[in-house]
Every structure is written in C-alpha cells, then in structure tokens.
Amino acid sequence: MPPIAATTAEMNSVPGLTAERAVTWPKVTKSRLANGLEIVLAESHAIPKFHGQLSFRSGNAAAIHRGVGLAEMTSTVLRTGTKNRTSRQIEEDLRGLGADLSSSAGADTSAIGFAGLSELAEPLLSLVNALAREASFPEPEFEREQRQKLEEVKLERTQPGFLAGERLRKVLFGSHPYAQISPSEQQVAAYKREDLLQTYRDFYTPENALLVMVGDFEPSTMLKTIGKVFGNWSGKKPATLNAPEPTQPRGRQVYLVHVPGAVQCQILAGCPSITRKSPDWVPLALTNSLYGGAFNSRLVMNIREDKGYTYSPRSGVNPMRQHGYFSISAAVRNDVVAASLTEIFYELDKLRSLPVPEPELADAANYLSGIFSMGLATQSGLLSQLATVALNELPDDYLETYRDKVRALKPADLLTTARKYLDSANMQIVLVGDRAQIEPQAQLFADPKIFDAQGTSLT
Length: 459
Fold this sequence. Notes:
Elements: H1 8-12, E1 28-32, E2 38-43, E3 49-56, H2 70-78, H3 87-97, E4 100-105, E5 110-117, H4 121-134, H5 139-156, H6 160-173, H7 185-189, H8 193-203, E6 209-215, H9 219-230, E7 253-258, E8 264-273, H10 281-293, H11 298-306, E9 314-319, E10 324-333, H12 337-353, H13 358-375, H14 379-391, H15 398-407, H16 411-421, E11 428-433, H17 435-442, E12 449-451
Helix pairs in contact: 2-8, 4-9, 10-13, 10-16, 11-12, 12-16, 13-15
C-alpha cells in the first residue's frame, strides 16, 4: 500500500513546546566549623564522584596595595609545593587518586577547585588542606611562574580584546581596584616571593573561606571527614580595605587605542551596572538576553545576521562584589565601525523606548530558564551555582525560585529595567584598531581620546 500523503495543514503545523521539565533539587546541608569555615554540601548520586571548591573571599582587589594581580600570582604558585610535597609529588598524588585540582583568583575571590572519586574524598581533601595551610612557595617555582607571567603580559598587549577591556575598566572605575585587570611587565618584574607569602597568610584562612561540595556522598559522613581534615586550621578574616568610589563618567566618550596596521576594529562599550545582590538582577539578566546576551538576540540578528558586520557581537552584565558594569562588544571591519555603533545604539534605544512584544519576551524567558536548568545538570554546574549563592549572600531559595521570577516578568518590567541600566546617553566607547582607519568614524560619536597599546596618551 502506498504511503498516505500528509495534508498541507499537517506539514505546516509546528509541534508546541512541552512543559518545562521540573528540577529535582538536591538536598543541601549547611554547616560551619568552630574555626569559621563555612560549608555547603549537596548530594548528587548519578556518578560515584564529587566536585568541590574551597573559596576565599579575597582576590586581586584586596591585594592591590601590594601589587596588581598579586592574588592571581599567589594562586598560581600555591600549587607548586607544600611543607611536605614538591610540585612533582603533588601531581603524582593527584594521578594516584584519579583526581583533578586547580587554583585560581579573580577580582574578589581566590579558590582551589578539585574533583575525584567519592571513596577517595578524604585523601583529596587532605591535599587541599595542605595547599590551603602549608603552601611553601618554592623560590625556583616562583621565579619560573614569574617568567611565564612576563611572557603572558607581553602577549596581552597584542590582543585587541584585552586592550579594549583594560581601557574600559580604567574609564569606568578610575582609582578603584577594579580598574586594574592585569599587571604591567614592570609590576610583574617587581613581584617578590614575600609578597605572595604575605597575601597567602592574609587571605587563606578558615574565617575567610567557603567549602562547597557536590557529589555522591552522605552529608553527615562527609561533614565528619571535613571536620577531621580541616578542624584544627586557624586564622582570622583579613582586614577590609577602603576603596575609592568608581568614577561616574557622564556623556558619551570615545577612547581609541591605536594599533598600527590592524585590519579590523574591536568595539567595546559599557556603563556602570549592578551586583548579584541587587533585586534588579533577574530583570536585567533577561533584558540583557534580549538585547545581546543570547545567540538569537536583537543585536546578533541586526549586525551579524542582517548586516554581516561581525561574527560574534555580545553584551553582558559583569557583576563583582562591590560594583558591576554592563558591556557590549563586537569585532568589526574597519569600514563599518560607525555603522556598527549606529546599530548598537539603535537597538539599545529601541529597547529603552518600546515594550518588548509578548512572544519575544516568552522566547527570551524560555532561553534564559533553559540555560539555567542546563547549568544545574552536572555536579560542576550545580557547584558553581551554589558557590555563587553563598559567596554573594543570596537568599537560600534563590536557585529554586529563579525560573519563576524570570517567567513572571512583563514587558513593562523590562522597559523600566532598560531605561534604568542600559545607559545609552552615558555609554563609554572603546575602539581598538588603526587610528587612520577608524578615527574619522569615531569622531561622529565624540572627539576621541587616543592611547597606544601600552596605555600612554597620544592626545
């Protein structure tokens, strides 16, 4: 029998979206040791592993009085030796445990991340404990990492994205530590081993620490293990340093970083914004997703899909502990810099002027909610979310209520949010490229201030 032909209506019909899958929230256990170490544990029994992160509430901003980027350098050298282990022995111990371990630092936090088999949790935690308490910072390892860092900062000066980010942060934050995103060669060369040791002693203390673990374990048993491993650790919180208030630049300004012979221009625009603790975080996250934070956002559809000016335009809300900022980025051909900026501001002002149509809002809410749910599907993803909640002192039900808050937003909420935070009139514009090619276009928006790749003013 021949197949039955589908009707036109059947061929044109599109299946509707199914109901969003419910998230089964894991049991979360919170505790605190007598020494001040905060603990958050979440059960996840899908695989016989666990992921963990020991975070410290101090980073590069808190170490700025000793040196730019010093917390990051401290975290790098941290894992190269302890009182009883060389760098090679640490790596051999990790291989023997089938475990992974990393150390890092950003503007506001330093962290030791780790993952391994649940049955070998205690020896892995003991290694983490040794790194947090007994790191030795061997002189040869420090010198090797210092040389490596010198090469990194030289390379950074050849990267348009870095140069744009550096200039924007200086413009938005002025004398605040957040203005400094990377040290100069001279600053790296001036690092001393003692600087790292003092940063380590100040920051890596239990009263300054948060331990988050997600995995295949029984919480009460894991708490006993944690108490056994970390219980006799001691140390107070570091002193809080007073930082100058960021600048509040008014009016659109253009900053041009001259890179001779550049064949394209890196655009980065931004304005001050909010932190994760702000009650406006969820509406701003959805507004940003609509504007340029998702692959099907208005900015992408305009200057990538329609105009073909760039491959990857993007916007984002960048929260730090004390302050945040909103940014828009795109790498475009030299001949379409002004045209790209025109469309960037067109979409920005449109979102500030007209309510978002309900179907577009629903699509954006589905996207943001879906991305959030996907981020909870792995142990590492859940760990990241739980750490964000704890480090930012968000409400205990923040994760559980997030999707409902996204879906409750109305067009009027987004219009209010866009007008409040997408500060078109005071947007600061950074352009990185060949001055001769882009300066005439920059002048259409403001008389540009010119710098070279080393940050020296050319005007």
